[in-house]
Structure formats: structure tokens, C-alpha cells
Amino acid sequence: MVEIKEVELKKDNSIFGQISEYNHEKVVFCHDHDTGLKAIIGIHNTVLGPALGGTRMWSYASDAEALEDVLRLSRGMTYKAAISGLNLGGGKAVIIGDSKKDKSEALMRRYGRFVKNLNGAYITAEDVGTTTKDMEYIKMETDHVAGLPEAMGGSGDPSPVTAYGTYMGMKAAAKKAYGSDSLSGKKISVQGVGHVGGYLVELLAKENAEIFITDIYEDRLREISTKYGAKVVGMDEIYDLDVDIYAPCALGGTVNDNTLSRLKCQIIAGSANNQLRDEKIQGPALAERGILYAPDFLINAGGLINVYSELIGYNRESAYAQTERIYGYTLDIFELAEKEGIHTQLAATKIAEKRIQSIGKVHSTY
Ligand SMILES: NC(=O)c1ccc[n+]([C@@H]2O[C@H](COP(=O)([O-])OP(=O)(O)OC[C@H]3O[C@@H](n4cnc5c(N)ncnc54)[C@H](O)[C@@H]3O)[C@@H](O)[C@H]2O)c1
């Protein structure tokens, strides 16, 4: 009995073992000696349409860490597009390097050539460590890029729309947990006040929430704190705060075996992708502790909705209107989770997978 369990739990950490675990269609390793480019493009699923997802530039500790990140992120994009009703598949890319030191026009354009060679199966956009300027460089090499500056006919920075959707998801969670969606007077901690976190703090301040913030960059903390009256806390201290809502808006995996027992909040709702280190472990654990988790790929979909709108003819108002629907979708997911006795992340995944399966069948019949 014990032996069988051990075999079941053994993880295949080989490259193909991981690709097969996440069930990817294609993974492309990109290398260029002259520019120093090292990138991985993950195309998870293209049943609903081309795989759209941003390119992250980050100083990963190892190639294995970069691969795991791109696999998890691209799978998340599949679910995000599916649950948001978009005709898009899921993909994502990572460039290994320090975005403040290692980036150059040549590197971004060389990367653009790799995207071009995928003939539209993958469409890129910005993410952590990349900007609309980088998308301009990629556009010089391929049309398969979105999130271009507004001056170039693009949709510009997706972060305000992402923040708005996250805010909608957070309000829906408040409605479920407290019976009212007002965030006035609620103690809310925001981890990471970069693009999305900054706009989220602005929305929360307008609603008179009591806000706590943390970040790596002290000048950014000072700026946001002064502007919106948010209280600055330490990067590790954030897990021990006595708050109502915790909003992870930095990187993924912050809800894990080490942090979960420290959290005192009733709600987790933030913009970061893959907030749960392992959804099979932390998903049920959060439910057991009575913490309501607003699924990340559902409530942070505003940016994708905005970028998608660019592909079909950009209209900012309709992108915001579609993003507002995240409020109702989030309440639906909470209801499904309750009805089926499952955790909220699983409920959201089920809805996304159901749509992919049913539309896949439509596409396979004439
Ligand atoms: N930008 C979008 O439209 C968008 C859309 C969907 C999801 N997301 C996700 O939301 C998150 C934030 O995105 P962004 O565009 O604001 O990125 P960003 O790089 O502008 O901001 C991230 C911030 O988090 C800080 N940070 C990193 N590690 C930290 C830590 N351990 N503790 C505290 N702060 C830390 C960084 O210093 C930075 O200021 C990311 O996970 C991203 O994938 C963003």
C-alpha cells in the first residue's frame, strides 16, 4: 500500500516529464549568442484560438525555475482566456535575464524573430520586466504582438484594466464573505505596488480602505504611500498582518506551505498569476481554514481582455465593460464551489476546461 503511494507521488522532473504533466502542445527554447538571448516560449493549448500571453523577463535562479514558471504561466493563460469567454488559447514566454541590465533593442528584436517563426500560433504581449517599448521592437520583426502603445494604434498599458478586474473580483469576494461589497474601512494588504498594484491601491484608496503595502523598491513604496496614505510594511511582515484581505500583486507562489499558516485574512484576491504554490495543496487548505480565495486567472483577466480587444479592433470602453463582468463570474464560481463542495480554484478550472472541451467539439465537426 505504502509502496504504491510513493510511486504515485514521485514527480518526473525531466523536461518532457514536466511538459507532459502540464499537457503542453509545444515548448520552444530560443537562444542567440550575439545578443545573449535565452528565452522559453510555452504554448499550452490552442483549441480556442492562438495562444496569447505576455513575455516575462526575470533573473531566474536556474533554467529549471524558468521552465517551470513558463509552463505554469502558459497553462494559466489557457484557463484565463477560456473562463473569460475569449477566442484565445494559452501561451506565455520567459526571457532569462535582468530586465534593468540585460535588455537591448537587438535582444528584443532577435526574440521577435523567434515569435515570427511560430507563424501566429503564439502572440506575445508585455508582462513583468517588459514594456510597451519592448513590444515596439518586437513589432519591427513580427505582427504577432499585442499591447502596443496607444500612439501606434495599440491598447497601451493593460495594468489599469487588470487592476480594475482584480478590484471587481475583490468586491465580489467581500460580498460573499461579508454580505456587502463595500471595501470602506476594510484592512487590505497589497504585496507589490508595481504597475497593477499601484492602480489597485488607487481604487482601494478611493473606497476608503485601510491599506498596507510592501515592495522591493523603496522609492516606489514612498511614492504610493505619500499619494494614497498607505502604510508601508516589511516584505516578510505582510504575511503576519491582521488584515481582512490579502492582495498578492507581485510574483506567484506566495501562498505556500510556509506562509499559509501565518495568514490571518478572510479573503485572498490579487493580480499575481499562480498565487497558490500548488493548487492541489493550498486550494483545499485555504477552504479548510475558511479563507475565501478569488481565483487568480479569473480576477486578473482584465489585461488579457484589453489586449484581446486590440486584436479585434480596440475599444477601451468595451474592454472595461467586459472586465466589469468579473464581479458576477467570481460570485458564480463561489456558488459552484459551495454546491460541489470543492475549492474555488478547482471550480474555476472546471468551468474553463468545460468550455475548451465543448468548443473543441464544435471545431471538430463540420
Ligand atoms: N500587468 C498586467 O496587466 C497583468 C495582467 C495579469 C496578471 N499580472 C500579474 O500581476 C503581477 C504584477 O504585475 P505588474 O505588471 O504590476 O508587475 P510589476 O513588475 O510592475 O510589479 C510587480 C511589483 O512587485 C514587486 N515585487 C517583486 N517581488 C516582490 C516581493 N517578494 N515582495 C514584495 N514586492 C515584490 C516588484 O518590485 C514590483 O514593484 C504579476 O504577477 C503579473 O504576472 C499582471
Any overview of this molecule?
It is a single chain. The protein has 366 residues and is α/β, with parallel strands linked by helices. It has two domains: 20-66 and 89-152, 3-Layer(aba) Sandwich (Rossmann fold), CATH 3.40.50; 159-301 and 328-352, Rossmann fold. Helices cover 46% and strands 16% of the residues. The chain contains 14 helices and eleven strands. The strands form two sheets. It has a six-stranded parallel sheet, sandwiched between helices. The longest helix has 21 residues, at 63-83. The site of nicotinamide-adenine-dinucleotide has 26 residues, from helix 6 and helix 7. Nicotinamide-adenine-dinucleotide is lined by residues 127-128, 158-159, 162, 191-197, 214-217, 220, 235, 249-251, 271-273, 300, 303. One of its GO terms (molecular function) is oxidoreductase activity. This is Glu/Leu/Phe/Val dehydrogenase. Its EC number is 1.4.1.-. Residues 156-364 form the Glutamate/phenylalanine/leucine/valine/L-tryptophan dehydrogenase C-terminal domain.
